[in-house]
Write a structure and sequence with these properties.
This protein has 653 residues and is an alpha+beta fold. It is 40% helix and 25% strand. It contains 17 helices and 25 strands. The strands form six sheets. An eight-stranded antiparallel beta sheet has the order 3-16-17-18-19-20-21-22, with no helix packed on it. A five-stranded antiparallel beta sheet has the order 7-8-9-10-11, with no helix packed on it. Strands 12-13-14-15 form a four-stranded antiparallel beta sheet, with no helix packed on it. A hairpin with a 5-residue loop joins strand 24 and strand 25. Helix 1 runs parallel beside helix 10 and helix 3 crosses helix 6. The radius of gyration is 33 Å and the shape is flat.
Length: 653
């Protein structure tokens, strides 16, 4: 019965994958498919490797098409203005249409020509839709993943659930029985993965065609940066073998976990955690270095070339993914194969009669091995503790301030101590229709500067009319040592649209960001200050929570605790870890600021004189006998505005 259900799961996975592939597939290059006859007319003349003759013919064709388009436009203008007759216009149009008979196909082939010109040695002309679709699967195949979880976790856990394992181990053929179960499971998983690969190959071959499998793999744009000298067909075979191995490796890991923990639910959790945690939480750069099933289930990264993005501030390239050499692939494959073999060996040992095996219990070793595998999958996920940075919303940043140049309409960060300006690059991806950009707030946490940028973009429709707007708010991390930038938070706050001449807005849970005038952060959350309060946003799951903290005065933060004046004028501390609020009963203040020495506050109980107390609200000390209107801190000195004449008094904290 168990094997019948397993066969049913396999058939269901094949059916679901086929239906989903047929329903969700879209051509990678729509122009090639839409104007297929026109494109193939050019491909018959260009198919194969790049040559100087083909390039010259394409350039001549481009010039002829450009002249024909101008001639067609001129004929239309002449006819509409009455300079030529209808017969002359039809004759000229017929001549032009002869040249423009395949203009749509030319656009598609010319884009391919520009790509080939980047590296003519290993990029060929061919219809790429079939191969590009075949190689487009760069995400985890969830139907395959789910079936492997069900099949491998059920093999031994079904015995443990009814305590049949002890009885089976008393049989003389216990090891042979366990070996048969393991072999059948691994073979079924291998066959399932191979069957899915064959279905994909047949689907794209029938729908688009898979011509010239001997052409270099670099002919497909996704592998354009690769230095590996392999053909298209060989590349797909390699990827299929790697994915089959990854499936077998995952099944072996699940068999190992099921024998170790003897619980179906816990086995599934281990399988999901070991695969999805690195898949979601780690970068591709790290994933493809782990001796785990995940990199082999993805596989395409082993054949891709290096990729990089340009730093928006310095213009220097930042490597986001480095190419994996064949030696690295073989080393990782060998290490993973050893781990897989050891897990299978341990499973068989656990299902062998003790008097036949003559062994000691290795349950502790198995647990240690499982912990090692989980630790490998979680490597690189630790986060450093936040530094103890001083933040006061009244001064935004104690070290840096935002400077706006009216002439150049650019923003810069000014170091208050040295006066050095650092330009902020805004809207690197936005076009000419960006209405407004602004840096709204800055937060300093050495060695990083975080600034909040807001921009509004207008989109245009096909006839050039504005029909949509969107406001986007981003938190950008700037490294003051390397000047590298990284966007750590980005949301569209709302969008306006126009339909049939009627303007309307689409609301969003992030609308409060439009009214944000300050922010601060730690490793767990982002805190946005608005006139209505402070909104906490989780950095992991993006969950929002409005804190009951009034923002009419200064808001201070030291990395963990938020300081503010509550509705009763009491200076209050809110612990972001325990989420508990603690008013300082003896500190009644109208204004305050946080410094490294403690909290300076204007004491309403003593004629608005300035006092200093510790961060726990204890040991208050009077530091000025003059009544003050406000008190502030700029990172070096404390300033207060006198109540008597409005003068600013400066004194070292």
């Amino acid at each position: 019965m168990l094997y019948q259900r397993g066969l049913l799961y396999i058939l269901a996975a094949l059916l679901v994958s086929t239906v989903w592939l047929a329903a969700a597939d879209r051509p990678q290059n729509g122009a090639m498919e839409e104007y297929r006859e026109e494109y193939e007319w050019y491909l018959e003349r260009l198919d194969g490797a790049y040559t100087e003759e083909k390039a010259a013919w394409l350039e001549q064709e481009a010039q002829a098409i450009t002249k024909a388009r101008y001639a067609r436009s001129g004929s239309q203008e002449s006819y509409y203005s009455g300079q030529i007759t209808a017969e002359q216009y039809e004759r000229q149009t017929a001549e032009v249409n002869t040249v423009l008979a395949h203009e749509h196909g030319f656009e598609a082939v010319y884009q391919q020509y520009l790509y080939i010109c980047e590296n003519t040695g290993n990029r060929y002309f061919l219809n790429t839709n079939g191969w590009a679709g075949l190689f487009s699967a760069q995400t985890l195949d969830f139907p395959l993943f789910l079936v492997i979880l069900i099949l491998a976790a059920t093999v031994f856990c079904s015995e443990y659930s009814c305590q049949m394992d002890a009885l089976l181990r008393t049989a003389p053929q216990s090891r042979k029985s366990a070996r048969s179960k393991v072999v059948i499971t691994l073979c079924a998983v291998f066959a399932l993965c191979g069957g899915l690969a064959l279905i994909r190959f047949a689907f794209f071959g029938i729908k688009y065609g898979l011509p010239h499998g001997e052409y270099p793999v670099q002919s497909i744009a996704s592998f354009g940066g690769s230095t590996k000298n392999i053909s298209l067909l060989a590349a797909y075979l390699i990827l299929t073998v790697l994915r089959c191995f990854g499936s077998v490796y995952l099944a072996a890991l699940l068999l190992f976990a099921s024998v170790l923990v003897k619980k179906y639910a816990l086995t599934v959790v281990i399988g999901v955690a070991s695969t999805l945690i690195p898949y979601i939480g780690l970068s591709r750069q790290i994933c493809y270095r782990l001796p785990m099933p995940l990199p082999f289930l993805l596989a395409t990264g082993f054949l891709e070339g290096a990729s990089s993005v340009e730093d928006s501030l310095t213009g220097e390239p930042i490597v986001t993914f480095s190419e994996r050499s064949p030696q690295e692939l073989l080393a990782l494959l060998g290490l993973s194969a050893v781990c897989c073999a050891l897990m299978v060996w341990w499973v068989l040992r656990q299902n062998t009669n003790r008097w036949q095996s003559g062994r000691k219990s290795v349950r502790g070793c198995g647990a240690a091995a499982l912990c090692l595998l989980v630790l490998l999958s979680l490597s690189g996920c630790s986060v450093a503790e936040s530094t103890n940075e001083i933040f006061n919303s009244s001064s935004q940043s104690a070290t840096y301030s935002v400077v706006y140049d009216d002439q150049t309409r650019t923003y810069a960060l000014e170091n208050r101590a040295t006066g050095i300006l650092t330009d902020l690059a805004l809207s690197p991806l936005f076009g000419a229709f960006s209405e407004g950009e602004a840096v709204k707030a800055v937060y300093m946490e050495a060695p990083y500067i975080y600034y909040m940028a807001s921009r509004t973009e207008q989109y245009v429709d096909r006839v050039g009319s504005y029909n949509s707007t969107a406001t986007q708010v981003s938190i950008v991390q700037l490294d003051t040592e390397t000047f590298e930038e990284q966007v750590i938070f980005e949301k569209i706050t709302d969008s306006g649209r126009s339909l049939l001449g009627i303007d309307y807005n689409v609301g969003d849970t992030w609308r409060f960001l439009q009214y944000c005038y300050g922010f601060f952060l730690n490793n767990d959350s982002l805190f946005f200050i608005t006139n209505d309060g402070i909104t906490e946003v989780s950095r992991t799951i993006q969950q929002t929570q409005v804190l009951d903290i009034p923002t009419r005065g200064n808001i201070a933060f030291d990395g963990r605790t938020i300081y503010f004046i509550n509705e009763n004028s009491l200076l209050t501390a809110y612990d972001t870890k325990t989420r508990k609020e603690r008013p300082f009963r003896k500190v009644v203040a109208s204004d305050f600021c946080l410094t490294e020495q403690g909290l300076y506050f204007i004491n309403r109980m003593d004629s608005d004189c300035v006092y200093l107390c510790g961060r726990e609200g204890a040991h208050s000390l009077k530091v000025s006998n003059d009544p003050a209107l406000s008190v502030g801190y700029d990172g070096e000195k404390v300033t207060m505005i006198l109540k008597s004449d409005g003068k600013e008094v400066v004194f070292d904290p």
